[in-house]
Fold:
Amino acid sequence: MHDAPARYTSFDEDSARWEGFAFRAGDIVISTRSKSGTTWMQMICALLVFGSPELPAPLSNLSPWMDHTIEPVETVHSRLERQQHRRFVKTHTPLDGIPLDPRVTYVVVARHPLDLAVSLYHQGDNLDRERLRKLTGAPAPTGTPRPRPELHDWLVAWTRSDASPHEQMDSLPGVMHHLSDAWARRRTANVVLVHYDDLQADLAGQMRRLADRLGIAVPEGRWPELVEAAGFASMRNRAVALTPNSMGILKDTKAFFRRGRSGAGREVLTAAEHQEYVDRTAGMAPADLLAWLHRD
Structure:
């Protein structure tokens, strides 16, 4: 008997939306923390599934975000039920919050948490929060809004947060829980871990590795155009079609693809602040995961 999936919620996410979803053999679930290469991995899967840079629909329609509460869950399930191609579904829920089916491949993308956090900070400036509030039905804020801290102060506070992973998935405890859970499952046949830095360093090799794990055969002559289409510059040029903005929650679709490289977190913190982060994460995850994750 399997334990029931854990429940994860935020102001605009609810992992309970996985309940009742009918998996099919061959489904792919892309499980990531926010700003860890989610859209990048969705694009890679789309290129492998369709075998062409020309996709039949916007990426967010082909690969819906299951947990996002901006549209009814019945709408998302129905859209996926109508799909005839091999399905690849986006989620920000850790694997312990998703029904695990042996016929499904679960792809978890990891990114250095400090880089993730810096990207998350900038993404916050690009969100239309009033639009999000209306779509999710959240109550209007009360009182005078406080000005947002500068990046440095925000990042230091983020590294010190003690938030619950089940309620603030994008907190440092949430990130480390998500990755620790996946790391513990990494030798399971249908779980694939991918590192953001490996995608940067060897995109072609990582795409071939994933195709092999998914059992997808790609004609040798097609690889160059597929790899090029998955590159940062190509994706940024196609931001309108690839950005998850079908409901108009972003102010600027191109700003979604902001930098696309690693090291931003180390640039912001002082040496002492970075060491504080290192010491804190040492108590939150196994040493082998941290060595793989941090690449220091």
Remarks:
- Residues 179 and 285 are 8 Å apart (CA to CA).
- The first strand starts at residue 9 and ends at 10.
- Strands lie at 9-10, 13-14, 28-32, 88-91, 105-110, 191-195.
